[in-house]
Design goal:
11 helices, binds magnesium ion, two-stranded antiparallel sheet, binds 3-hydroxy-3-methylglutaryl-coenzyme A, TIM Barrel
């Protein structure tokens, strides 16, 4: 196999939203700058969600204002509603991501709304973002298993993906939010969604809960997936998904991509250094707060 694989670095958003520590703006900006300099074609910088729900990312506007922009790298942000989109436009995001769960239990816990209500809420968001000329990523979360409802059928994922495409999303990102997938689940998922979105047009977002994420990525590569999310140093998870300890580390993902004969154009050592520096920052914050308490 050969060809180019596209990597989206989600550590600054999906990684840091799940760390207990509140990371200072300067450290976040340095993290994003390092990931951009490493050649990641897209970095998901932050989210514009309720600070009550995700206090770790309450400083998103300041981070976006201070990061260095570089031609060839998209700076994207996650938004849950029209207010989030307004903040994203003000912050001059290059791309936005909306998110919907394939399971009702996670939808309620994550955005306090049913799947149908969430889709309704996102229709004007996608429309306005497209009118503003921005590409829109549509995440589907809990694509294999929900921490509240249990197993999720590929048909449920395909139904949500279809709605996201219909509202104008330009990309479908399938998220194994709690890292429950084994290789055969990924195969079933991609086959079950192929009628709505071909594997070559899917982005896969894996968590490494059971140590199977790189094997899942390799199976997906063999099935035609050419776009993946990674989080430097495996930072993160999801605050509303118990059992989601770490995202697939970008370094491990890059190694898997190379093993399968693909190129990715990202400096893996630079990503590893950026992730290690952020881990040191997190450790220092936790140590200081333990010493102060
Ligand atoms: P709600 O409590 O139902 O609704 O939250 P609300 O309208 O009453 O809003 C609550 C408060 O947030 C209000 O302020 C609003 O003004 C404010 P308060 O009265 O408390 O002062 N608010 C906002 N503030 C800033 N920006 C906004 C915004 N909207 C409302 N855009 C809501 C509903 C959707 C807002 C909330 O549930 C929320 O923000 N949820 C986001 C949770 C989240 O970010 N989860 C993690 C991301 S998803 C994920 O990680 C999965 C993924 O990685 C894929 C995978 O792993 O599979 C994508
Ligand atoms: Mg995630």
């Amino acid at each position: 196999m050969s060809g180019q694989v596209r990597i989206t670095e989600v550590g600054p958003r999906d990684g840091l939203q799940n760390e207990k520590a509140l990371v200072p703006v300067e450290a976040k900006v340095a993290f994003v700058d390092a990931l951009v300099a490493a050649g990641c074609p897209e970095v998901e910088v932050t989210s514009f969600v309720s600070a009550r729900w995700v206090p770790q990312l309450a400083d998103g506007a300041e981070v976006m204002a201070r990061v260095r922009r570089r031609a060839g790298t998209l700076l994207s942000v996650l938004v849950p509603n029209e207010r989030g989109l307004a903040s994203a436009l003000e912050a001059r995001a290059d791309k936005v991501a909306v998110f919907v769960s394939a399971s009702e239990g996670f939808s309620q816990r994550n955005v306090n709304a049913s799947i149908a209500e969430c889709l309704e809420r996102l229709r004007p968001v996608a429309r306005s973002a497209r009118q503003a000329g921005l590409p829109v990523r549509g995440y589907v979360s809990c694509v294999v298993r929900c921490p509240f409802d249990g197993p999720v059928e590929p048909s449920a994922v395909a139904a949500v993906a279809s709605e996201l495409l219909a509202m104008g999303c330009t990309e479908i990102d399938l998220g194994d939010t709690i890292g429950a997938a084994r290789e055969e689940d990924i195969e079933r998922l991609l086959e079950g969604c192929a009628g709505v979105v071909a594997p070559s047009l899917v982005t896969l977002h894996l968590h490494d809960t059971q140590g199977r994420a790189t094997a899942c990525a390799e199976r997906a590569l063999r099935m035609g997936v050419r776009s993946f999310d990674g989080s430097a140093s495996g930072l993160g998870g999801c605050p509303y998904a118990p059992g989601a300890p770490g995202n697939l580390a970008t370094e491990s993902l890059l190694a898997a991509v190379e093993r399968c004969g693909f190129s990715h154009g990202v400096d893996a050592h630079a990503v590893a250094r950026a992730g290690a520096a952020m881990r040191q920052t997190l450790t220092r914050i936790q140590r200081d707060s333990a010493a102060g308490s």
